[in-house]
Amino acid sequence: MAIRKIVIHPADILEKSCKAVVSFDKKLARILDDMYDTMIEFDGVGLAAPQIGLDARIAIVDIDDEHGTIEMINPRVIETSGEQTDPEGCLSFPGLYGEVTRPNYVKIGAFDRKGREYTLEAEGFLARAVQHEIDHLDGILFTTKVSRYLEDEELKGVESE
Ligand SMILES: [Zn+2]
């Protein structure tokens, strides 16, 4: 396990659609383990492979709830509904936070590290984090969705993804 370097915006890798994972092997497991260590080191609630410089549809989310660490390989959004507007940040944009409106509910399909397909339903903050990470895999950055940037005094308790 190792902590990887976070790619900071601007960088081409952050703005491209990533390639699907085809091998569910030891290399994938090591990437996921490293992504977890890196997310924890930088105090994030999610991390996508392009944020460590990898062109691969791999992302993790851990908002410290009963779901534990959600590993999403080749994830796809199946359904969304509702709306939520809340502060959001990103490990690739240190110190930058803004309000982003996203669906309040999302249902996704993805594969785990062993190549088993699963579906996940999420609401609220978890749904926000999941959608933020899946956006990364399509080269979509949260800054394209910010309606208002936040000032320092508004930032208490906002975590980065
Ligand atoms: Zn991000």
UniProtKB/TrEMBL annotation:
Which Enzyme Commission numbers does its entry carry? 3.5.1.88
What EC class does the entry list? hydrolase
Cofactor(s) annotated in UniProt: Fe(2+)
Q: Where is the active site?
A: 133
Q: Which SUPFAM superfamilies match?
A: Peptide deformylase (SSF56420)
Query: Per UniProt, which keywords does this protein have?
Result: Hydrolase, Iron, Metal-binding, Protein biosynthesis
Q: Which reaction(s) does its UniProt entry say it catalyses?
A: N-terminal N-formyl-L-methionyl-[peptide] + H2O = N-terminal L-methionyl-[peptide] + formate
UniProt keyword Phosphoprotein, yes or no: no
Named from the GO MF annotations, one term is:
metal ion binding
Tell me which domain of life the UniProt entry assigns to the organism this sequence originates from: Bacteria
UniProt binding sites for Fe cation: 90, 132, 136
Family, per the entry? Belongs to the polypeptide deformylase family.
In UniProt terms, what function does this protein have?
Answer: Removes the formyl group from the N-terminal Met of newly synthesized proteins. Requires at least a dipeptide for an efficient rate of reaction. N-terminal L-methionine is a prerequisite for activity but the enzyme has broad specificity at other positions.
| UniProt cross-references to HAMAP family, sorted A to Z | Pep_deformylase (MF_00163)
Protein name, as recorded: Peptide deformylase
Q: Which organism is it from?
A: Neobacillus bataviensis
